[in-house]
Design goal:
mainly alpha; about 180 residues
Length: about 180
């Protein structure tokens, strides 16, 4: 959709959908981390390091890909990254479920909290979700403005609206994503 869009309204719409999807991933991922982590401070630090790393690397990689392969290919790489997380997610969630089952059988009752296994799985899943979510929002930042200017004649205002939309939607959807 977004890679083939040719109007300001379509670009804003697709970016808004992206912002909502990121909120629907980030908030439950943080909830999973807070529910299962044995060391919330350490696991949150790892999660934020992954998020920050994706914000640092994704625009560079997106710009490199845009310059070498074109705008649409940026989205194919993002789709491959999402597919990779979907392949890993069942294992991480199964590990967390198995550890929760052990917790229910008495391990957590005796120790007063989740087992290290469930915490590692939750932290891994949350970090993967946050990293992918942040990469999705920033991967094509280096490509968006030049592509919009060259192909659609976008100026600074139109490009700014394309960036504003997902942020506003993310902020609006986040409070409801945890419910």
């Amino acid at each position: 959709g977004f890679a083939r869009s040719s109007t300001v309204a379509a670009w804003i719409g697709w970016r808004s959908l992206q912002g909502a999807a990121c909120a629907l991933v980030d908030v439950p991922a943080m909830g999973l981390l807070l529910t299962h982590s044995r060391d919330v401070a350490e696991d949150t630090g790892v999660l934020e390091a992954v998020a920050g790393g994706s914000y640092m690397v994704a625009p560079f990689l997106g710009g490199l890909l845009y310059e070498s392969c074109g705008f649409a290919n940026v989205f194919f790489v993002l789709a491959a990254a999402h597919a990779a997380v979907l392949l890993v997610a069942p294992r991480l969630l199964a590990d967390a479920a198995a550890a929760d089952a052990a917790d229910t059988a008495g391990a957590a009752v005796a120790s007063g909290g989740p087992t290290p296994s469930s915490g590692r799985a939750a932290a891994g899943w949350a970090a993967a979700c946050f990293g992918l979510s942040n990469a999705s929002l920033s991967f094509y930042d280096a490509a968006l403005a030049p592509h919009a200017r060259a192909t659609l004649g976008f100026g600074a205002l139109e490009t700014g609206l394309v960036y504003l939309a997902p942020s506003a939607i993310y902020a609006s959807v986040s409070p409801f994503a945890g419910g």
